[in-house]
Design a protein that fits this description.
- This protein has helices at 31-39, 43-49, 87-103, 120-134, 167-192, 200-211, 224-230, 233-239, 292-307, 352-365, 379-385, 397-410, 444-453, 488-498; strands at 2-6, 15-22, 60-64, 71-78, 108-112, 156-160, 217-222, 247-253, 262-266, 268-272, 313-322, 334-336, 342-344, 370-375, 390-394, 414-416, 434-435, 461-465, 471-472, 482-483.
- It is of the alpha/beta class and 501 residues long.
- Strand 15, helix 12 and strand 16 (414-416) form a beta-alpha-beta unit.
- Helix 3 (87-103) packs parallel to helix 4 (120-134) and helix 10 (352-365) runs parallel beside helix 13.
- The longest helix has 26 residues, at 167-192.
- The two termini are 25 Å apart.
- It binds ligand BES, manganese (II) ion and zinc ion.
- Manganese (II) ion binds at residues 272, 274, 349, 351.
Length: 501
Amino acid sequence: MIFSIKKVDVFSQQTDVLVAPVFKNESLLSSDLRVLDRLLEGKLSELFDEKTLTGKDNEVVVIHGFGELKAKRLLLVGLGERSALTCEKLRKAAGEIVRRAKGAKAKKVVWLWDIGTLDAADTTQAVAEGAVMGGYTFDCYKTKPEKNEKPTKIKEIVLAVPDSEHISAMESAVITGLVIGESVNIARDLANMPPNDLTPSAFVDLAKKYLDGQKSIMIDVIDKKKAKALGMHAFLGVGQGTVEPCYMLAVSYHPMKNKKPIGLVGKGVTFDTGGISIKPSKGMEEMKGDMSGAAAVLGTVIALSKLKVQTNVLAVMPLSENMPSGSAQRPGDIVAAMNGKTIEITNTDAEGRLILADALCYAVTKGCSQLVDIATLTGACLVALGDQAAAILGSDQGMIDTFLKVGERTGERLWQLPLYEEYFDYIKSDSADMVNSSENRLAGTAVGAIFLKQFVGDTPWVHLDIASMMHYSKVSGYTVKGMSGVGVRTLVGYCRQQSGL
Ligand code: BES
Ligand code: MN
Ligand code: ZN
């Protein structure tokens, strides 16, 4: 998809789709809409009068070209009150527009660019992200295309600006937005892939493929033998019940000399049956997405390297299946993590925190200046927040505050939950340093986090529980049904912010 920013007389342009934003309570105030109304022989005034067109959020009215309009279709997109316009609204609108345009088999879209006082670069980036994410499909396993649905690709989206002042800033923002959107889609692909194909070793191979040729990248694949030598028994215990070998994948992106990296740690359970503490079968197929944290971390490194962001990152992805079998971990087993702390397994379904424990320890030994982990860790996160926000907890309020701001900007909602030290009382063990799962069901998300805190030492640390946002249940804006690829935008945003962007 090519995005271009042009100052052109749009009304003379041949295009498949012309997009005109409509703001609430403005009716025909904007000069573009007045011109359009004239070309369409008063059709817009009519639609306003009969309240078919109001400009409210998410409203889309399609008019097939007639009168003197050169476009085949006019898409009138409601954006709400002009004073309440946000990047996120534009991101959503872009996704919607791309899907509508694809549905109409359009090749070219011209968008009358009218964003009021918002920042030209921020809005352009958001729109590029939304367009790429909204056009996402996962249909590579279908042998026949859906009925009447020949795959179409939009070749060009033109943002038609009123003056040329911001064009160069917008052009570089387009590149940022496209790369971030594509990286989200890579994370979605990984999470949507069936678990028989996306095994830990397949994840490693794909990571190598995606990062092939990128500068400042080093890939270290820690196999079982090396993990054993490093003392990663919490990680190895989870992988002992499956025939699929597990790997601790460490990718370093190191563009800056003499600077400590930010450690990004992502949970990579390629399928979570629960193990011996097996899950109910209803909906278990969703657990193919239990590697969404690792996918987000990989997507982030891909984006950072493509955008040449000047922040060092060490991405650590513990990759394993969690299966029941004769060799599987038992409730009652005690394992030691890399930092020597011992864990009594009371529930083999609380496996994410076990593999993350060793991944965090590993990142600490590599000298990370700060740690961020991201994981589909607890069902309790869904109970607390529904599918509207991911949970954030951690040891460093400064980092958390930065994340909350970045999340707001990138359109990935985060909500802070408390991390009281007293929660550790819930995971005290009679025989080891801690258990992996509390007896009660209280504050499940915070209990997961207080467990992880035992493995970060003094390094400032933030934990993102994305179980609530793992998948989208409906198509809307830039979301499409299936795994969400959530986290990439926030992590890239955070790393760019740390580099001073
Ligand atoms: N992968 C699950 C959490 C999850 C649930 C992710 C729903 C996405 C959607 C995790 O490994 C798990 O099973 N957690 C347990 C923890 C409990 C045993 C302490 C849970 O939430 O029930
Ligand atoms: Mn589990
Ligand atoms: Zn899990």
